[in-house]
Design brief:
CATH architecture: Distorted Sandwich
Strand content: 25-35%
Shape: globular
Oligomer: single chain
CATH topology: Glucose Permease (Domain IIA)
Largest sheet: 9 strands, antiparallel
CATH class: Mainly Beta
CATH superfamily: Glucose Permease (Domain IIA)
Helix content: 10-25%
Distance between the termini: 64 Å
C-alpha cells in the first residue's frame, strides 16, 4: 500500500488540525488559562516558585476576604477541576462579603468570562506579581481599570458568577508571577495557601 494513500493523508491532516487548534486555543483563551481551563502560558521550576513564595510571605499580604482567619484557609490548589488543575484556592464566605486588595497596586483588568465570571486582575506595585479574584457578585462602586488601589481597599464582593455553584458563594483567588512582558493574561500560578500559611 502506498504511504501516500488518501486515508493516511486524512489522518495526517486531522492530526495537524488538532495540534493547530490546540495551540490556537491555548494562545487565544488566555483568560481561561487564568482560572485553570487550560494550563497557564508560562511555567517555572519548583525552586523559583519557592523563592517567590518566600518573597510574598515577607510582604504580609492581607487576606482577600474580610474577617477571614488564616486557620480557615483550605489548600485546593492542586485539586482536579474536571480536565484541569485548580491552581487557586477557594475561600468560602457569605454572598456580598467584602473582597479586599491584598496589597497596594493597580487594577490591570476588569473582566468577565464564562468560567471566572466577574473577575479582577490586580498588579502589585512593581508589576512583578498579579492577584486574581474571581466569581465576584459585583465590583466595588466606581472601580475602574487603571485605578490605584490601597491594601485593604474594598474592590468587590463575594458571589457565584461564572461557573461557581450557585449555592456556594466563594472567592476563587490565586497569585501569578508575571512575565517580562507584564501582560495581565500571562503568568505562572503560585499557591496562595503556601504564602498565607507560612
Amino acid at each position: 500500500m502506498s504511504t501516500n494513500s488518501p486515508g493516511k493523508a486524512r489522518v495526517i491532516l486531522i492530526s495537524f488540525l488538532i495540534g493547530f487548534l490546540s495551540h490556537v486555543g491555548t494562545s487565544l483563551n488566555n483568560d481561561q488559562a487564568k482560572h485553570g481551563a487550560v494550563p497557564p502560558v508560562v511555567r517555572e521550576s519548583p525552586v523559583m516558585i519557592a523563592d517567590d513564595v518566600m518573597e510574598l510571605r515577607q510582604r504580609h499580604l492581607l487576606s482577600p476576604v474580610s474577617n477571614l482567619r488564616k486557620e480557615d484557609l483550605q489548600d485546593s490548589f492542586h485539586e482536579s477541576r474536571g480536565n484541569h488543575i485548580h491552581e487557586a484556592i477557594d475561600i468560602l464566605a457569605p454572598r456580598n462579603t467584602a473582597i479586599l486588595a491584598v496589597e497596594d497596586g493597580s487594577i490591570a483588568r476588569l473582566w468577565f468570562s464564562v468560567p471566572g465570571g466577574i473577575t479582577i486582575y490586580q498588579f502589585d506595585p512593581e508589576q512583578k506579581y498579579e492577584y486574581y479574584y474571581a466569581h465576584l457578585e459585583r465590583y466595588a462602586d466606581g472601580l475602574r481599570e487603571g485605578d490605584r488601589v490601597k491594601r485593604g481597599q474594598v474592590i468587590g464582593y463575594v458571589g457565584t458568577s461564572g461557573n461557581a455553584p450557585k449555592d456556594t458563594p466563594h472567592l476563587h483567588f490565586t497569585i501569578f508571577k508575571l512575565t517580562d512582558q507584564k501582560h495581565w493574561w500571562q503568568g505562572t500560578a503560585i499557591n496562595p495557601y503556601l504564602v498565607y500559611k507560612g
